[in-house]
Amino acid sequence: MSAYEVNFDGLVGPTHNYGGLSYGNVASQSNSQAVSSPKDAAKQGLAKMKALMEMGFRQGVLAPQERPDVAALRRLGFSGTDAQVVEKAAKTARPLLAACSSASSMWTANACTVSPSADTADGRVHFTAANLNCKFHRSIEHPTTSRILAAMFANDKHFAHHPALPAVAQFGDEGAANHTRFCKDYGAAGVEFFVFGRSAFDARFPEPQRYPARQTLEASQAVARLHGLDEAGVVYAQQNPAVIDQGVFHNDVIAVGNGEVLFHHEDAFLDSERVLAELQDKLGRRGGRFVAVKVPRAAVTVEDAVRSYLFNSQLLNRAEGGMLLIVPEECRNNERVWAYLSQLTASGGPIREVKVFDLKQSMQNGGGPACLRLRVALDETELAAVNSQVILTPALYDSLTQWVDRHYRDRLTENDLADPQLLVECRGALDELTQILKLGAVYPFQID
Q1: What are the residue ranges of helices labelled H in 153-226?
Q2: If you ran DSSP here, which 8-state letter would residue 417 be given?
Q3: pLDDT digits over 151-206, tens only?
Q4: Using omega within 30 degrees of 0 as the cis cutoff, is the peptide bond preceding 68 cis?
Q5: Which entry of 137, 142, 158, 250 is annotated as an active-site residue?
Q6: In terms of CB atoms within 10 Å, which of 4, 171, 253, 395 comes out highest?
Q7: 385: how many CB neighbours lie within 10 A of its CB?
Q8: Do β-strands 255-258 and 261-265 pair in parallel, antiparallel, or remain unpaired?
Q9: CB atoms within 10 A of CB 14
Q10: Cβ atoms within 10 Å of 148's Cβ, excluding its own
Q11: Phi and psi (nearest 5°) for 234?
Q12: Which of 162-176, 220-234, 366-380, 423-437 has the lowest mean pLDDT?
């Protein structure tokens, strides 16, 4: 039976803004308080989805979250009508309102970790929502994320859903941004690669000194257990603490993999030789031929990688052979990065083609092409069991573009978050979206 990798991209929400909320994310902090365009952001994301669909890749859509999150503000002591809650927060705790208004769920690489049925003990596709507890504005996402995923992948015969891990520092889990799967074929048993920043209980592992390490070894191990993964098909690696301190807050800012190929920076991991040898050995035992494409620091510095988001790219298997790398415009604008990519595609290696996309609205908040998508490997039967309304088609693309035009603002500033009308607009947009995508009641305002 044929199997496919389906990319589910996050729709950018109506409250997309530059709050500078993510300490350790250089782009997020450096663009704090800039004027955003929610409409442009959503359309840039949709344009990428449409382009990949037209290239023959299977493409899905993941809905944004309700923002401002009034329920979260109520839990923090604000009371009254919904409008009064927003107004009080804006007057007395503006940073909390900004956090509860973040559109960060657009980066669906952080939504959850996914293990395909070929890897799991019970032969189902497993999803574990990420707790994202390192940042308050992201830690409030997982309840709605779980409901949306359950509405998209609703067949218990094929799909298993796990709640987020305990929301404590020892089990910090950032989802698929720190998880990669290697395989000879999407329907064959593969090797799941978990990258962590620190260990909660083992002092032998070094930690970064400037920025927090968001993913723990213990969280990665817990997800592997929940998904019923065989130890023979799992590899754990520690992210280099020195690169975390340079702004590499997730592994997908310094490495990306797909199929049998890992594209990574020379400084991505601690004990790289051991890690690569283990990947090669375990994938080899499952019939694959592991290929590591190492980018030397002499060609691209970590600083250049962070500024350009070279590794926060999508690595896709082309039908005609070889691999396609989807990169943001910032890569072309960086002379050293673009020179390296030109040499890479001419070298005869596995990466044969590079395509550039304008994702400036997302990039300014610290998220590139890879941040915007969640990869799910599905066989034909499983794909048929997915809610068909979330699979992108030309008609759905047109509907979503028109939906954005009806509901999204052209510009948004931090002061606009204090406008209670923004909440009304957001809820109206999401209520209509759940009908377009046939999700049912997934948002708090639809349930309460």
Answers
A1: 217-226
A2: G
A3: 999 999 999 999 999 999 999 999 999 999 999 999 999 999 999 999 999 999 99
A4: yes
A5: 250
A6: 253
A7: 18
A8: antiparallel
A9: 28
A10: 26
A11: -130, 135
A12: 366-380
Residue 376 has pLDDT above 90, yes or no: yes
Element (H, E) at 209: none
DSSP string, 329-348: HHHHHSHHHHHHHHHHHTTT
Check pLDDT > 80 for residue 19: no
**Gap between the Cα atoms of 109 and 14, Å rounded:** 19
- Pairing mode, strands 125-129 and 112-115: antiparallel
351: Cβ contacts below 8 Å, ≥ 6 apart: 261, 263, 293, 315, 322, 323, 324, 325, 344, 345
How far is the C-alpha of 102 from the C-alpha of 433, rounded, in Å? 19
Element (H, E) at 40: helix 38-54
> Is there a catalytic annotation at residue 273?
no
Give the pLDDT band of residue 362 (cuts 50, 70, 90): confident
Partner residues linked to 261 by β-bridges: 258, 291
User: Would you state the structure tokens that stand for residue 105, as one six-digit string?
Assistant: 């769920």
Q: Which helix (H) or strand (E) holds 235?
A: strand 234-238
Say whether 137 is catalytic: no
- Out of 5, 66, 141, 174, pick the active-site residue: 174
Asked which of 33-42, 165-174, 395-404 is least confident by mean pLDDT, the reply is 33-42
SS3 content of the chain, % helix, strand, coil (to 5): 40, 20, 40
CB 139 within 8 A of CB 106: no
Give residue-wise pLDDT tens across range 62-102: 999 999 999 999 999 999 999 999 999 999 999 999 999 99
Whether 219 contacts 318, CB under 8 Å? no
User: Treating both helix axes as pointing N-terminal to C-terminal, what angle do 420-436 and 394-407 enclose, rounded to 10 degrees?
Assistant: 160
Q: Find where tokens 């015969």 sit.
A: 157
Task: Grade residue 28 by pLDDT with cuts at 50, 70 and 90.
Answer: very low
Q: Annotated catalytic, 174?
A: yes
Residues 260/196/3/57 CA torsion (nearest 10 deg): -80
Instruction: Output DSSP code: residue 191.
Output: E
Marked catalytic residue, from 179, 371, 382, 407:
371
* Position 424 pLDDT exceeds 90: yes
Residue pLDDT, tens place only, 312-327: 999 999 999 999 999 9
What are phi and psi for residue 155, nearest 5 degrees? -90, 110
Cβ neighbors of 445 (< 8 A, separation 6 or more) are: 66, 427, 430, 431
Please tell me whether the overall predicted TM-score, pTM, comes out greater than 0.90 for this model. yes
Are the C-beta atoms of residues 173 and 163 closer than 8 Å to each other?
Answer: no
Is the distance from CB of 88 to CB of 80 less than 8 angstroms? yes
